[in-house]
Design brief:
- The complex is a heterodimer.
- By secondary structure, chain A is of the alpha/beta class.
- Chain A has two domains: 216 residues, P-loop containing nucleotide triphosphate hydrolases (Rossmann fold, 3-Layer(aba) Sandwich); 43 residues.
- Helices cover 30% and strands 28% of the residues of chain A.
- Chain A has nine helices and 13 strands.
- The radius of gyration of chain A is 23 Å and the shape is globular.
- Chain B is mainly α.
- Chain B has one domain.
- Helix content of chain B is 79%, strand content 0%.
- Classes of the chains: A alpha/beta, B mainly alpha.
Chain lengths: 281, 242
């Protein structure tokens, strides 16, 4: 669905995006992870045809991004990080206006509003909406014309936990419906939960690219932490794969002196720090 | 698909009209040329009659009637330019301008519906206003030429406001400042020496020279100077909305 080969771009004379390469298959959720200013949004701008002065290849649905014509946008939906809505129009009026720009059959506006819990607020002006409500309206605006590819930039940003959960469920449902989704985020939990594969972007380069599970397993190892009484409460730790070599643990188990025992895996955030040397959240 | 291209343009242009209609200040500013036209058509001759009687002179304002006409011809595009600028700045604030680039309307379609269509509309309105209210210009060809030049000036002013301001408040300030560029209209009437050519970078100066002397060269110079400014400002605007 998307092929990027040896892509480079810079706003100034200094290098910014360099030798970027990846492929995204149809029906996949692909995540760009990285701190602010890493180049995620710039990459999204290139993929959506907003930036055309790049070097290398950026092919979306068989067409080079710099050569998209307007009709191409019938096939893609974009949810920018910050809402792009007419503040003086109501939620429904916004959807009706933006929907009228497409020649495709639109999805049912009532169902979309219902899906994100805005049905009761459809006749309120957007200026009266909360930040979260605007984000949800902006999100369904991108779904309105039922695009094949969705570009989502921080889709759960500013949402309360319930709305964030609902939003993630909708994204997963859209994937089930066959959509290819490009997710840009700095939220590792969202990325680990939603993405089939993720790319770590730092300083305009892809530092790692794989499934969240493979990244975690290749760079980290599961551990066991245990506590026991030895006069005072003490703590021990060993790798899960080396449990049989931990004589202290064996001794404690045999004498029933273990107070607690937990296994722990590194998170995607830990792996990001290890690979890039940078902190995300 | 061509049918859809025009449909999208008309939908976007109607949205522009709706925004003006919903905003009392923008709506009234588009009526300003008619109010000014009524003033010069009926008020100025009365004032002239009073002044000639008062000063016992044959004519007082008559030599400057063309200046009133030139301000009339630029007022329509200027007011539409103001309305366009405010709509575009509002849409930049709301993130709409950037979003339109990823819809089938596209950035080009958006700019046509916000700059070219209002310009064309103001060109037509300007011709009508001049035909109805002009004090001195009777030639239809000259009215068309001046309406065209003033529309180009209006386009340039819109580009100046939307490129150089970050929000509506700054936009209003720059709109007021852009009024200074209209000083070129009166220079050829009052500065008769070569010093007047200090204003060669003001398109309004060449428009006034064309209205005074009727030379096509001045018309071409007005278009060329305006085009230079427009290209410069358009580049800045494109960078701003990317």
């Amino acid at each position: 669905m998307i092929q990027v080969v040896d892509l480079s771009f810079s706003y100034t004379r200094n290098k910014f995006l360099e030798n970027i390469g990846f492929e995204v298959s149809e029906g996949e959720i692909f995540g760009f992870l990285g701190p602010s200013g890493a180049g995620k949004s710039t990459l999204q701008k290139i993929l959506t045809g907003l930036i055309k002065t790049y070097k290398g290849q950026s092919i979306v649905k068989g067409i080079e991004s710099k050569h998209f014509n307007n009709d191409f946008y019938e096939n893609i939906g974009v949810d920018f990080e910050f809402p792009s809505l007419y503040e003086k129009l109501t939620g429904r009026e916004n959807l009706e206006f933006f929907g009228s720009l497409y020649s495709k059959k639109l999805r049912n506006i009532d169902e979309l509003l219902e899906m994100v819990g805005l049905k009761n607020d459809e006749d309120k002006k957007v200026s009266e909406y909360s930040k979260g409500m605007k984000s949800r309206l902006n999100f369904i605006k991108a779904l309105l014309h039922n695009p094949d590819i969705l570009f989502l930039d921080e889709p759960t940003s500013g949402l309360d936990p319930n709305s964030s959960r609902d939003m993630k469920n909708i994204i997963l449902q859209e994937k089930k419906n066959g959509k290819t989704i490009i997710l840009t985020t700095h939220n590792m939990t969202d990325a680990a939960e939603l993405c089939d594969r993720v790319a770590f972007i730092v300083d305009g380069n892809i530092k790692a690219l794989d499934t969240p599970h493979n990244l975690i397993m290749s760079k980290g190892a599961s551990k066991i932490k245990y506590t026991y009484l030895d006069g005072t409460e003490k703590t021990g730790e060993c790798l899960l794969s080396l449990t049989s070599h931990d004589k202290k643990l064996q001794e404690l188990i045999e004498s029933n002196r273990v107070l607690s025992i937990h296994s722990s895996e590194p998170t995607l955030n830990d792996i990001f720090m290890e690979v890039t040397g940078r902190v995300l959240q | 698909m061509t049918h859809w291209k025009y449909k999208r343009l008309s939908i976007s242009f109607m949205q522009y009209i709706n925004q003006i209609a919903r905003d009392a200040m923008l709506f009234l500013s588009c009526l300003a040329p008619v109010l000014y036209g009524l003033f010069i058509k009926f008020g100025i001759p009365v004032a002239e009659k009073f002044l000639t009687g008062y000063y016992s002179r044959k004519e007082v304002l008559v030599p400057y009637f063309l200046i009133f006409d030139l301000f009339l011809v630029v007022l329509t595009p200027m007011m539409f330019s103001f309305a366009s600028s405010m709509v575009i700045l509002g849409e930049i604030d709301d993130g709409i301008t950037k979003y339109m680039s990823v819809t089938p309307l596209g950035r080009g379609g958006y700019l046509i519906s916000r700059l070219i269509l209002p310009l064309t509309f103001s060109f037509v309105v300007s011709i009508i206003v001049m035909n109805v209210f002009s004090l001195t210009i009777n030639s239809f060809e000259i009215i068309i030429a001046l309406s065209f030049l003033s529309s180009v000036l209006g386009f340039m002013t819109t580009m100046m406001v939307v490129s150089l301001s970050a929000n509506k408040v700054e936009g209003m300030a720059i709109t007021k400042m852009s009024g200074i560029s209209m000083i070129g209209i009166i220079l050829p009437f009052f500065v008769l020496t070569r010093i007047q050519y200090l204003a060669i970078l003001l398109p309004s100066f060449w428009m006034a020279k064309f209205a005074l002397e009727g030379k096509i060269t001045y018309l071409i110079l007005c278009v060329m100077v305006s085009a230079g400014w427009i290209l410069l400002l358009l580049r800045k605007f494109m960078k701003k909305t990317m």
